[in-house]
Amino acid sequence: MLSLEQDAVESLYRQLEAKVTTARPKDDIGVLEKTYRYARERHGAQKRRDGSPYMTHPLHVTQVLAGMQMDMVCLQTGLLHDVVEDTGATVEDVRRLFGDEVARCVDGVTKLNKVNFYSREEQQAESVRKMLLAMVNDIRVIIVKLADRLHNMQTLAALPRERQERIALETLEIYAPIAHRLGMGKIRGELEDLAFEYVEPDAWAELKREIDTKREANEGFLMEIRKMVELQLAREGVPARVDGRVKRAFSVFQKLKRQKISLDQVYDLLALRIITDSVKNCYAALGVIHNEWHPIPGRIKDFIAIPRPNLYQSLHTSVIGPGGQSFEVQIRTEEMHKVAEEGIAAHWKYKEGKKGHADDDRRITWLRQLVEWQHEVRDSTEFMSGLKVELYPEEVYTFTPRGRVIVLPRDATSIDFAYAIHSDVGNTCVGAKVNGRIVPLKYNLRNGDVVEILTQPGHMPSKDWLALVKTQRARNKIRHEINTTERAKAVEIGQKYLEKEARRLGVSLNKATKADLEAVASEYGYGKIEDLHAALGYGKFSPRQVLQKLAPDSVQPEEPPKPAAPQPHTPGQPAPHDADLVIKVRGIDDLLVYRAKCCNPIKGEGIVGYITRGKGVAVHSVNCTNVQNLMYEIDRRIEVEWARSTTELFPIKLTIRTDDRPGMLNQVTNVLFTEQSNIRNLEARGNDDKTGDGAMVEFTAEIRDKKQLERIVSALRRISGVRDVERVQ
Ligand code: MN
Description:
Elements: H1 2-23, H2 29-43, H3 56-67, H4 72-80, H5 83-87, H6 91-98, H7 100-114, H8 122-135, H9 139-154, H10 161-181, H11 185-199, H12 201-213, H13 215-235, E1 240-246, H14 249-259, E2 270-276, H15 279-292, E3 294-295, E4 301-302, E5 315-320, E6 326-333, H16 334-342, H17 344-351, H18 357-374, E7 384-385, E8 388-389, E9 395-399, E10 405-409, H19 414-421, H20 423-427, E11 429-434, E12 437-439, E13 451-455, H21 472-505, H22 514-523, H23 529-537, H24 543-550, H25 576-579, E14 583-585, E15 593-595, E16 607-611, E17 617-621, H26 625-628, E18 637-638, E19 640-642, E20 650-658, H27 664-674, E21 679-685, E22 695-703, H28 706-718, E23 722-727
Parallel strand pairs: 2-6, 15-17
Antiparallel strand pairs: 1-2, 3-5, 4-5, 5-6, 7-8, 9-10, 11-12, 11-13, 14-19, 16-17, 16-18, 20-22, 20-23, 21-22
Helix pairs in contact: 1-2, 1-3, 2-4, 3-4, 3-9, 4-7, 4-9, 6-7, 7-9, 8-10, 9-11, 10-11, 11-12, 16-17, 17-18, 21-23, 21-24
The chain binds manganese (II) ion.
């Protein structure tokens, strides 16, 4: 049994080999054999659904490619196209054994295989088609993928019903249109007819029955007119071969549906194809046809003079034949025929082996026309280099885990993606997984990325996101959300402020009626109490001022505010307004913030804010003893953070105890000079207060952040003779 199967695989390979030897006699067939042996070994005992050895699949796919006379790299890709996905071989393995080009193509096909989608929406299908083309950077990848799909469709019967339907639909909506767009008429037609049976089983059965009843008559008719045409062409000296055929089922079906006509009314159900040697003879053949039969007005089309956007060229005419039976005639040269059947693959081969500008021009023309057909891309001149096909450089095509396509501008991030799904998803987004891996929110999405957004209920967007997003939608939603939450927070803070101050001053807010408070609010120009709270929260005025208006008898007018905490002497202390530039209360603008004098935190240190009485938010170092001693009540705590970019300098006072020796001061100032830190004032004393011997240097330096401070302190400590360096709090 096993050896029978082996024989079947082997003989399939021999057929392929024979085909390639004939089609491409100059190619090294040893390379093909080596590739085949490797793929067969990797797929081992794997089976297809129908029970046949898996290796028969890549062999059939490669047969299709050989039929199109594709080059060796393309054939190797056909043989290897499933080894990375299905056998655990890596792209690196392929590269090592078969080189860069093959590895790149196999990688390309593997990536396309991961694309998954379910939608029936027309727009969605168009996005997927564009994305597939955008993902492909070597046209051979898409050619192999189409051949792969063709064989899968040919063997679709072995799959369960619902998978058949999905795959057939995908073929009809995605792959056949791509084949059409690339001018690959033959493969497109085969894909459509194969899919038709599964997607529209009833219509297919009915149409097949109808065509079958007339099959004999039709075939007889085609034979008859074919002989007549051959005779007449020979008489006129036009060299040609003539084929007769019945129009493809799916294309008849579309016509019936579109024009709401019956099968009898389809002019071109029967068709002859005349293939001759030159453009001149195409027109000569047309003359011969029209001389014999009456053309149907409006049915003559000259796609030679005006090619279709996918570069299809042919003359079409429909005539009334013997017995009043109409039929269509297509006339073209051999070369036009190749292009009509193989499209971009024909052009790709034309290019192969010939190097020169003319070929490049031709390929660029092709792609330009493809693009113009799309009416999408602005500049079509710059996307072609080598064989790279970047058709849609301005867009990236990404997926939800369920396969929905999300089209975003280039360099969009996972935040854009989250907002594209839903504003709630955007607002609560805390992270993202791309292709199963956690990525930073700033990660730029790439074509084909499958993006899963991680959310957390109650999470709020951050202002930093505005710098990361590329879509207007995300930007607007973030702004809106931030404004809303900021205000809500300000209202909350303002209310707390007011209540605390009222308690401290012995004013009962309960007794103050709502109406009284509303009156005060309107005195400030606000319609609602909430607006008054917000204004207090934003620090526009103090709670005391409000309470004074509310209870003028028991509250004295504003007095100078008390310091928020015990305040040791700190020379060079900045005015409070310096600090609000460098510290932000999380989510709130506009709130008065200052660094507490007790610990004088600098950028980079852990900080925490406390709402003070009437002086805004005091910011302490988390290590500050005042904080640790729980001097501050927990409900006055508020989250604060250092502003992302700031050039603010913090005056920091340091004390150095040293041996008393010459040159010491010079060394100390050198450290600060090296760190580009300015010295505000410096004082050196001959005696250390504590020990009585040695010397003491005390100075205030302007420091950027915690890291710089640490560098300076450790550099000072390395100076020989320095005993201790201390930050004065
Ligand atoms: Mn495959």
